[in-house]
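Design request, C-alpha cells follow.
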C-alpha cells in the first residue's frame, strides 16, 4: 500500500517551486508592502474557523488559500519600517537553511542520530564562545528556541550548581528593567515571591549597585542565601547595559552565580562601540544570546553559553534505558543532555550556513551600521523643536516623545498625545511604531537593528508622526 501522504517527484517539485517563489517574491517586494497587519478575532474566525476536513483538498488550492489569507495577515518583522519590539531582520540563506533542516527532518538531540548536526552545533557554539571570550575547551552551550528558554536553562543550572536540591532559602536578584522571561523562568523553577529581589535602576536605567549591595547584606543578615544575579546586556526597553564589571566583582566576592541576559544586545560585541559598552560580559558564568535577533537569523534560535560545559550535563543528563545504545563517548556530545528538550530541531544549520556564506565581516558591518543609524536618529531628533529624547541611542534602541517647545502641555497630555501618535501610525500600517513607559512617561521607542532600514525610513516616519501630532493638537484646540 502506498503511503496516504504519497506525492510523485513531479508533484513535489511543482509544489516546492511555488513555495520558493513565494518566499523569493516576499524578499524582493518586501519594502513595497506595509509592515503592519491588523485583524480582529471575529475577522480571523470568519476566514479560518472550520471543522477539520475528512476528505482531501488539492494541494495547490490549500497553498493558494494560505498565500491569500495567512501570509498577508501577519506583521512583517523584516520590514525596514518595523521599528517596534525587537524586529526579526532575517536573511535569505538562513531561511533556505531552515528549509533544508525541516525538509530532511533532522533530529539534533543525540550524536548517533546525526553526528553532522551535533558537530555543527559544537562548531557554531565555539564561534560564539570565542566572540565573547569564554573558554572554548572547557566552556560550552546549547541552542534553544529563544532567549526565554535559554534563560530558563541558565537559571535551572545556576540553582543546581549553587543550591543543590534545597533552594528554599535561596535569593535571586535582577533589575526592574530585566526581561520578563527571567521572571517567568524564576516562577517555573518554583521560587517564592520573597526569594526574588527586583532592584530599582538608576536614572540611566542601569542596575543600582548600592541598592543591590544593601539588599544582599540585608538578606545575609536575615539568614537567607543569595545565590544569583541576573544582569542585562541590552535591555529591551532602552538597550541599556548594566555595569557588568561591578556586578561581576560582587558575584566573585559573595560567591554568587553571574548570569547575563544578552538576548538582545549581546551581538553588539561584533562592533567596536558595542564591544566597549559590553566590557565585562566575558566574566559571566552563563550568557544568553539570541541569534534570531541581532545575528539576523529567522525564528527560532536562542543560545545559552556557559563557562563550564559540565555544569549543563550535570544538571540535565538523564540515562533512561531506551537511550542506552546512543550515548557514545564523551567527545560525542548529546545535546539532549545539555538542556530541557530531548527532541530538538537542527537550529545550528542556518547559523552555520549564513556565516559561512556571508562571512563574519558582513555581520560586523551590519551591526555597526545599526548602532550608527540610531546615533544619527538621535542627532536628527535633537535638532528638532518638537521632539524630546527620554533615553538616548544605546545599542540601536532610542526612546523619545513628541513635546514641542511652543506648547505648554501637561504630563498627562503628553502621555495621551504620544499614545495617539503611535496608534495613528500603526493604524496607517505604514510603520510599526509603538510606545513603552519610562520614568512614568509614555514614550515612543525605536529599535533599529534592520540593516535594510535607512535614515530616510526613520525621517519619513518621524514626519508622519508630526502630521498626526498636529492633527491631535488641532482637535484639542491646542
Amino acid at each position: 500500500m502506498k503511503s496516504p501522504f504519497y506525492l510523485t517527484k513531479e508533484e513535489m517539485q511543482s509544489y516546492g517551486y511555488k513555495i520558493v517563489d513565494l518566499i523569493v517574491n516576499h524578499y524582493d517586494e518586501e519594502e513595497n508592502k506595509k509592515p503592519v497587519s491588523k485583524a480582529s478575532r471575529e475577522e480571523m474566525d470568519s476566514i479560518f474557523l472550520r471543522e477539520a476536513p475528512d476528505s482531501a483538498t488539492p494541494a495547490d488550492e490549500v497553498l493558494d488559500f494560505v498565500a491569500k489569507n495567512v501570509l498577508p495577515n501577519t506583521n512583517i518583522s523584516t520590514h525596514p519600517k518595523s521599528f517596534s519590539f525587537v524586529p526579526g531582520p532575517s536573511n535569505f540563506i538562513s531561511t533556505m537553511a531552515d528549509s533544508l533542516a525541516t525538509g530532511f527532518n533532522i533530529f539534533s538531540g543525540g550524536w548517533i542520530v546525526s553526528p553532522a548536526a551535533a558537530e555543527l552545533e559544537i562548531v557554531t557554539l565555539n564561534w560564539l564562545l570565542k566572540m565573547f571570550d569564554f573558554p572554548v575547551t572547557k566552556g560550552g552551550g546549547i541552542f534553544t528556541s529563544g532567549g526565554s528558554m535559554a534563560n530558563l536553562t541558565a537559571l535551572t543550572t545556576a540553582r543546581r550548581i549553587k543550591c543543590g536540591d534545597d533552594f528554599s532559602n535561596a535569593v535571586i536578584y535582577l533589575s526592574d528593567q530585566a526581561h520578563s522571561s527571567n521572571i517567568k523562568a524564576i516562577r517555573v523553577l518554583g521560587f517564592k515571591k520573597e526569594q526574588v529581589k527586583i532592584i530599582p535602576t538608576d536614572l540611566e536605567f542601569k542596575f543600582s549597585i548600592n541598592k543591590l549591595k544593601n539588599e544582599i547584606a540585608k538578606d545575609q543578615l536575615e539568614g537567607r542565601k543569595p545565590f544569583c544575579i541576573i544582569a542585562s546586556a541590552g535591555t529591551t526597553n532602552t538597550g541599556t547595559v548594566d555595569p557588568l564589571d561591578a556586578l561581576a566583582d560582587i558575584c566573585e566576592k559573595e560567591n554568587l552565580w553571574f548570569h547575563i541576559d544578552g538576548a538582545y544586545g549581546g551581538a553588539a560585541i561584533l562592533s567596536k562601540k558595542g564591544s566597549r559598552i559590553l566590557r565585562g560580559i566575558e566574566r559571566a558564568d552563563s550568557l544568553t544570546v539570541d541569534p534570531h535577533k541581532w545575528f539576523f537569523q529567522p525564528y527560532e534560535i536562542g543560545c545559552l553559553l556557559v563557562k563550564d560545559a559540565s555544569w549543563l550535563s550535570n544538571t540535565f543528563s538523564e540515562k533512561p534505558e531506551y537511550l542506552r545504545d546512543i550515548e557514545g563517548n564523551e567527545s560525542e556530545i548529546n545535546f539532549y543532555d545539555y538542556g530541557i528538550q530531548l527532541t530538538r530541531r537542527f537550529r545550528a544549520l542556518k547559523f552555520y550556513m549564513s556565516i559561512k556564506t556571508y562571512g563574519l565581516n558582513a555581520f560586523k558591518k551590519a551591526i555597526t551600521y545599526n548602532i550608527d543609524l540610531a546615533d544619527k536618529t538621535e542627532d536628527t531628533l535633537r535638532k528638532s523643536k518638537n521632539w524630546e529624547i527620554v533615553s538616548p541611542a544605546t545599542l540601536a534602541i532610542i526612546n523619545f516623545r513628541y513635546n514641542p517647545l511652543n506648547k505648554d502641555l501637561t504630563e498627562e497630555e503628553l502621555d495621551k498625545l504620544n499614545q495617539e501618535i503611535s496608534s495613528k501610525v500603526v493604524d496607517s500600517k505604514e510603520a510599526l511604531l509603538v510606545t513603552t513607559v519610562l520614568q512614568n512617561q509614555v514614550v515612543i521607542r525605536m529599535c533599529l537593528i534592520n540593516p535594510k532600514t535607512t535614515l530616510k525610513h526613520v525621517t519619513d516616519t518621524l514626519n508622519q508622526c508630526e502630521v498626526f501630532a498636529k492633527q491631535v493638537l488641532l482637535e484639542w484646540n491646542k
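Comment from the thread starter after seeing the answer: thanks! The mean pLDDT is 96.
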